[in-house]
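> forwarded from #structure-qc
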């Protein structure tokens, strides 16, 4: 439980940085990977490590197509180490749902609030953190 709370704390920092600057730093991704690796070891969830390479490959293709940022791919790959394979699809679906909610909220605020300045892209680190934390909580 302590490890999950540590991940939640790191995730709050990542969300703050992503919303504010649209950047997910490599250091943040490394911190998430380190904590998730410990969680993987503690829960004997070694099967999840097989999915890192496909996540990177699919993410790389999406990055080339300019559908997702590189930091988002690294962040989800780091989180995926601690998510049990049976919860991985559910985690991806929840990330997509939360991402749609964030995107619609951002669009609504930009159209209806003159004080909101438009920034390029949706801060997808927020739904990745929320969905991944839910997936990890289900996996523990």
């Amino acid at each position: 439980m302590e490890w999950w709370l540590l991940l939640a704390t790191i995730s709050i920092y990542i969300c703050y940085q992503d919303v504010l600057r649209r950047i997910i730093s490599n250091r943040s991704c490394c911190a998430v990977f380190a904590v998730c690796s410990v969680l993987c070891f503690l829960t004997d969830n070694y099967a999840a490590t097989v999915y890192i390479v496909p996540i990177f490959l699919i993410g790389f293709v999406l990055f080339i197509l300019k559908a997702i940022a590189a930091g988002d791919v690294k962040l989800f790959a780091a989180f995926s180490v601690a998510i049990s394979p049976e919860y991985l699809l559910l985690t991806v679906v929840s990330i997509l749902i939360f991402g749609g909610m964030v995107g619609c909220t951002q669009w609504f605020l930009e159209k209806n609030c003159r004080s909101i300045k438009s920034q390029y892209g949706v801060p997808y680190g927020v739904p990745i953190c929320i969905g991944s934390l839910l997936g990890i909580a289900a996996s523990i």
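QC bot note: Residues 67 and 137 are 28 Å apart (CA to CA). The two ends are 8 Å apart (CA to CA).
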